[in-house]
Design a protein that fits this description.
Radius of gyration: 18 Å
Helix content: 10-25%
Distance between the termini: 39 Å
Largest sheet: 8 strands, mixed
Shape: globular
Strand content: 15-25%
Length: 292
């Protein structure tokens, strides 16, 4: 039957059926997938059966896989892959297991942020374990003209672990070493970012690592970021993905924010959650634009 695409009954996102990532991703298919991603912000490729080598090869089709700054948490032998979930000994620590329970944008704390992130489901709990994603293009489009004018040229300051969190969120995963800390200076990103492929405008990184706005005092900057965050997290902009084993959830990181949902340490297979994360920088080679 070939590849089939079905839009979610949700504000955005689509599932892709009938494709075997290990064998079917020709240049033509890759072009179709990238166009679909930039159209829908989120794709879920169902029923995959991949080795770490095959998964990493797929990640490389989207850009340059970027090892997470938390080097102690990387997969042995595959540093570009970050196992996350509730099944390892590290996951007994609440701050580790739920370290992504905050709205954020991957690598927004680096000069070149991630352009796409993917999570491959190895174990999926019967209940819970969702990833929440919010469409920052739609959130920007729904701002009034006065606010769009106010924020159009603003620059936001980012640093890992510096963002303010709400009562229902967890702080950023803890830095373990001086080497990790030294890699994380303050960086600057535009508050409104133009997508390098589609040209659409989106709110960028208003939650997670953002802690101030250039040219504003601390209180004014924090207030504006908080207001934009609350706007961006309105239900009309959010999709929550419930994983099945074999799902690859892939999202356009320049157009979205995301958050895990809290989960307890696994007691057995029915409540186990294990995902393999890859974040990439740059664009699929079929696109020749450079990220700004």
């Amino acid at each position: 039957m070939g590849m089939r695409v079905k839009e979610f009954d949700a504000p955005f996102g689509a599932e892709v059926l009938g494709i075997d990532v290990a064998n079917d991703v020709t240049d033509q298919v890759m072009g179709q997938l990238s166009s679909l991603l930039y159209q829908h912000r989120l794709l879920v490729l169902r029923a995959q059966h991949l080795s770490p080598e095959e998964y990493l090869a797929f990640g490389r089709r989207w850009g340059k896989p970027h090892p997470h700054v938390l080097d102690h948490a990387r997969m042995k032998g595959f540093p570009e892959i970050l196992p996350i979930g509730n099944v390892t000994e590290r996951a007994r620590e609440d701050a580790v297991r739920n370290g992504a329970v905050q709205w954020h944008t991957d690598q927004s704390y680096e000069k070149e942020p991630a352009s796409a992130t993917m999570l491959y489901s190895i174990k999926a709990p019967h209940e819970g374990g969702e990833t929440q994603i919010t469409d920052q293009v739609a959130a920007y489009n729904e701002l009034n003209s006065d606010m769009k004018g106010k924020i159009s040229n603003l620059i936001v300051l980012h640093q890992y672990g510096a963002g303010r969190v709400r009562a229902d969120e967890y702080p950023a995963s803890p830095i373990k070493t001086k080497k990790q800390k030294d890699q994380l200076p303050v960086v600057r990103h535009p508050l409104v970012r133009r997508h390098p492929v589609t040209g659409h405008a989106a709110l960028y990184g208003v939650s997670g690592t953002s802690f101030g706005i250039e040219g504003m005092d601390d209180i004014e900057g924090a207030s504006l970021l908080s207001a934009l965050k609350e706007h961006a997290l309105e239900e009309r902009f959010i999709y929550r993905h419930k994983y099945s084993v074999g799902d690859i959830a892939l999202w356009d990181t320049l157009s979205t924010m995301h958050s895990a949902t809290p989960i307890h340490f696994a007691l057995g297979e029915t409540d186990s959650r294990l995902l393999y994360r890859i974040s990439v920088k740059g664009l699929p080679y079929i696109h020749h634009s450079n990220l700004q």
